[in-house]
Design a protein that fits this description.
By secondary structure, this protein is mostly helical. It has a domain at about 1-185: Orthogonal Bundle (Preprotein translocase SecY subunit). The protein contains 16 helices and three strands. It has helices at about 5-20, 30-40, 45-55, 70-80, 85-95, 95-130, 140-165, 170-200, 205-230, 265-285, 290-300, 305-325, 330-335, 350-385, 390, 395-420, and strands at about 235-240, 250-255, 340. Strands 2-1-3 form a three-stranded antiparallel beta sheet. Helix 4 packs across helix 6 (about 95-130), helix 7 (about 140-165) packs across helix 8 and helix 14 packs across helix 16 (about 395-420).
Length: about 425
Amino acid sequence: MDKTLTNKILITLAFLFAYRILAYVPVPGVNVDVIKEFFNSNNSNALGLFNMFSGKAAERLSIISLGIMPYITASIVVQLLQMDLLPKFVEWGKQGEVGRRKLNQATRYIALVLAFVQAIGITAGFDTLSRANLVANPNVQTYALICVLLATGSMIVTWLGEQITDKGYGNGVSMIIFAGIVSAIPDMIKGIYEDYFVNIPSERLTSSFIFVGILIVAVLLIIYFTTFVQQAEYKIPVQYTKVAKGAPSSSYLPLKVNPAGVIPVIFASSITAAPAAIFQVVSALGYDADWVKTAQSLLATTTISGMFMYAFLIVLFTFFYTFVQINPEKTAENLQKSGAYIPGVRPGKGTEDYMSKLLRRLATVGSLFLGFISILPILAKDVFGLTDAVALGGTSLLIIISTGIEGMKQLEGYLLKRKYVGFMDTSE
């Protein structure tokens, strides 16, 4: 294996190891058992997703409980501001590498503000739950310390993610979420084992073996289907009016069948986690109004309305992120500048309209796919009585497969680079 690649993998593993160690460092003066019980009672809703993405750091009230979520939310805000909402951000988006650095810096500042806001919200909830002895010494100084530590921990995780992206292997944000999800898989397997092989009479063992076997086959089929869709491409033929001698006169523009990838699922989870926590606090305060119960049911994937709300958010963010990733106007402009055109489509406005129509179709397919994979395990849990951890398996599976595909493509890039060692400087 190439030395550079080996170093990148080792650096990534070192940062992920540090991240997992920090997940077991709780904030001082907090009863971890109480917060763990709180998350266990909300394991199948948005708070369960939040806990899963943090690698179960939230249920331990670790200093990195907020995880990478503030940074993800900040990224959403920055991308929204680039859509002709804030002229300065639009200008930076057109400045190439220099603009990208400015946008990354703005994302960090926004993430810091969001981390403090979320930390304040959590500590405010602690005060409500203090009667359960969550905090040993409930006072302003204790809450202020917890707030600062949680916000600082979130910035540490963000820094770890950036270091993995710059110096390590793969995308830092994806790798951190990947590490958190993978760490929860043993508990999921343990739960299934105890439900079907331990806490049952001996005469049911045969049926348990059959059921678990069918479950494994179903998971493998879902993995195959998900991998196929995530890699599937729609190739748009492109022809060139001016070509160099010996160069091909035609090519194609590849678009993924699911252009948004797995990002909409992460967006939907991060957006719903904060309101779910707020309504839990409101309910704990004794405000059991009908609108509070309705809001809680909409954010709980254990209910039909909650499942549809989660699927709706995934669909909404799929369309949004598809058009953020691929701007039809810029695509049409770039094709026209390079002397390229799509056969049968007028350059300029005609190409823009064609791309917009095509992206809407692909986003529809992608959103239905993401919604189906995310909701299927939830339905399976309700139908077959599986553990709560299984309900979040669809979201976990999407992220794991997406991160794996991304990592394999990066690996192929490094291996391709080795083939051209005579033409390229590989010392970097």
